[in-house]
């Protein structure tokens, strides 16, 4: 196509020009994604990061995020380079894994980790909402981005240690429309699971609602 000649589509992992029929990753990179298989693994490392900190049902991530791995570029392109369709595609893959596992069939609602309005304005979109939307399509579950809001602007977590991350997000979230959550099993969705501080802070707010249960899902798991 003429558009592909003028603006060739590039694989974010290896940098090769995508061929016709290749969607967002080249076929080789797609086949070699470092999948975690956490959705088949009770007590997996994602669940260990929340153990003893917050009550939860399940936790899963799609692939391993390693500093030395070119696969980390998928998150970078999605989060900072406007590659929303790439993020949506990865969200679809994650949703398929969660569905196949059978562990997420009793989810009632999917809630993305919210961005502060200023950060969302700067970025132009909430990457977690994009992932949550695709998971919702696969699981056929309601996605609600209005019940949990970020009431305080927080600085990036990237260069903070575990304790600093906990402090940074403490009290940053607030429940709105609590009646929508009562007695429901909520799947919290984010792009990357690092220490679990952000997802944990969100879960603690949700768990204040009577009868709520929480599970977690992220695209990447940072080692």
Number of domains: 2
Structural class: alpha/beta
Low-confidence stretches: 1-6
Largest sheet: 5 strands, parallel
CATH topology of the largest domain: Rossmann fold
Distance from N terminus to C terminus (CA atoms, Å) equals: 40 Å
Q: What is Rg?
A: 17 Å
User: How many distinct beta strands?
Assistant: 7
* Helical residue percent band: 25-40%
The appropriate CATH architecture of the largest domain is: 3-Layer(aba) Sandwich
Overall form: globular
Strand order of the largest sheet: 1-7-6-2-3
| Proportion of strand residues | 15-25%
What is the CATH level 1 assignment of the largest domain? Alpha Beta
Query: What's the helix count?
Result: 9
Order of helices and strands: HHHEHHEHHEEHEEHE
Mean pLDDT: 90
Question: What descriptors fit this protein?
Answer:
223 residues; alpha/beta; Rossmann fold; 2 domains; 5-stranded parallel beta sheet; two-stranded antiparallel sheet; 36% helix; globular
What does this entry look like structurally?
- The N terminus is likely disordered.
- This protein starts with a helix and ends with a strand.
- It has 223 residues and is an alpha/beta fold.
- Strand 6, helix 9 and strand 7 form a beta-alpha-beta unit.
- The protein has 2 domains: 32 residues, no CATH class; 188 residues, Rossmann fold, CATH 3.40.50.
- The chain contains 9 helices and 7 strands, in the order H-H-H-E-H-H-E-H-H-E-E-H-E-E-H-E.
- Helix 5 packs parallel to helix 7.
